[in-house]
Amino acid sequence: MTPSSPEPVLSSSAVAVRLETIQRRIAAACRASGRAVDGVTLTAVSKTQPPEAIAAALAAGQRVFGENRVQEAQGRWNDRREGVSGLELRLIGPLQSNKAADAVALFDVIETLDRPKLADALATAGARAGKPVRVLIQVNTGAEPQKAGVLPGDAGQLIEYARTAGLVVEGLMCIPPADEAPGPHFALLRKIARRHGLETLSMGMSGDFETAIRFGATHVRVGSSLFGERKGPETPSMD
Ligand SMILES: *Cc1c(COP(=O)(O)O)cnc(C)c1O
Prior knowledge:
9 helices; 8 strands; 40% helix; 15% strand; globular; PyrdxlP_homeostasis
């Protein structure tokens, strides 16, 4: 084993500049499609980033963050939670049912509900914690076998199941196939959301958030454009 070299960390002013650039691009995309600029929230994807990068984003005023692993997020955010007002943490990675209680304790919104068993576990955890559980349903719009998410045709049933279980279903989330144009996937997600009266659409990442805004995204999840390339482990589907 060779010792790993220290991660290159963007200076805090570089993070602030990138943040401003992305906010400007979001605003321009909103205007281009006749949408209100405050209708789109930037979720800063802080997975695998060093503490300095997160501190820089917080100092620049960013308050909404996305993480893809419960344990990693606990290490990174448990001690910070108290000191930061207005902080919102969103889980954007797959969740195992046996981590539901930990996820409910740490996260404000869980974006990756994709099966009834997990809905049950989240409902139980929420009841125990005396906390409403806000969720998005992740839809596998490309029906990719290796990817998480409920199939588009089964989304309606899961939405109803989650509502009946007592979860607060706020909307839908998707990660389009890496090798396809994302537009049709975003359009499909929006169509399913409308059919079920759901407001929140979490879609669009560094490479396609402007397209997602054109298709109605309310939350865009941006990591590498904001913090630079990740060096740590990632969700396999993102590679
Ligand atoms: C990592 C990740 C992102 C951010 O991706 P970038 O291309 O770095 O912006 C967005 N959504 C999910 C679900 C992710 O896992």
